[in-house]
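Box S1 | Example of a co-folding query
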Amino acid sequence: MPAADKYLFEMKEDCGVFGVYGHPEAANLTYLGLYALQHRGQEGAGICSSDGKQLYIEKSMGLVADVFTERRLKRLPGYMAIGHNRYSTAGGSSLKNVQPLAANFSLGSVAIAHNGNLVNAAELRSRLEDEGAIFHSTSDSEVIVHLTAHIHGESFRHRLIHALRDVSGAFSLLILREKELIAVRDPYGVRPLSLGRFDGAHVLASETCAFDLIGAEHVRDVEPGEMLIINERGLESLKAINSVRRAHCVFEFIYFARPDSSIFGGTVVNGVRKELGRQLARESSVDADLVIPVPDSGMPAALGYAEESGIPFDLGLIRNHYVGRTFIEPKQSIRHFGVKIKLNPVRKILKGKRVVVVDDSIVRGTTSKKIVKMIRETGGASEVHLRISSPPTIAPCFYGIDTPTRKELIASTHMIEEIRRFVTADSLAYLSLEGLRSALSNPDDYCYACFTNDYPISFPGEHLQQMDLFVGV
Ligand code: AMP
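Box S1 (continued) | Returned holo structure for adenosine monophosphate
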């Protein structure tokens, strides 16, 4: 297998990270932080702590609450810790990829928790393997550990900065060593990473909803290209990598981040989502009796749509919260089944009504089709108008959102009218790209690649080939 496609199925992951420095309950706080970030990854969870002398690590496949028993948390002593939730991917499910990844090398022990995806990981990995490196996982994050170990230099920070200048792509990283915690964000700031304060301790999290849970104060974002080093001397900020432009992932606002979080300069996600709904109503109004959300992803946009259009809002679909996200089920057959056990249409609300159904995105189209059908057939709606609070998803993400291959994205191969027929809606409208941009305060600072096919972080030549294989063209 050529090096370029060897790690193909390990390339897509979005995750949640959390870290604490300077608190006697570091591991317990990290557990709570990961709990709040569970939506960012359900495949596996791990925590690594340090008491200033050595690292302790516990990790397993599964949800945070299942992975960490009280006994397990007691095995994580110390005043600093980092934690990680890993997202489920198509083929990369295995314990060896659950983070933090820990390693020992000449400068001591190190553990790493990574959110994002490196686009040149395969290339760097083959180079490192040619030089004798032995990899333990198939995760792109391990490349950073090996690069750091291979670079000559006196200090860890010097080596790490040089390693990070070699990697390309998205990384919001937390790194734990025996006596320090390091946080660093890629120069584009693709994935969020925030700094907070709690009870005299420094805390770091992918999203501020994790700060809310423990009662921490949100201080600021870790800046794109910035490295924070936190140790007994305090907090030091270094400009580690030059940032020429920002490319925050707009899909964090559309779908991924929790609505109660503030990300990318302190913007509340819920506010943006509602504005996307309002804009959608301005662009694609329709005569209807009722606006309903696809829970939970369409909720804020549906509220915005209803507000702007003046059409009454109601909960016409009720979600069973005890079923996992259908999107991440590995087999097509399970996914179809999943929609039925997850959502129930409320006939009393829907019967005889012309219904606007709002969701955040259409990926393959399979969920939307099931939903339209159940609203019409089981719910008894007379008309079903589907409104999507983002532009058509036409291109896969290589920076960390788990999207299928290009050919599986229905909008990459079908016109809107064809998609409407496929999902059997009476009408279908997506938000325009301009409409999406108008809801953001600095629209040029975002990555829209999944809607435009215009990737802000270029891929090395070898990866271009991989992208072709990946997208099946
Ligand atoms: P589909 O049936 O493939 O079109 O899936 C559409 C649904 O998946 C929508 O309700 C979205 O909220 C949701 N969705 C979009 N992107 C993702 C993602 N990366 N992970 C999980 N769910 C997603």
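The chain has 19 helices and 23 strands. Residues 1-12, 468-473 have pLDDT under 50 and may be disordered.
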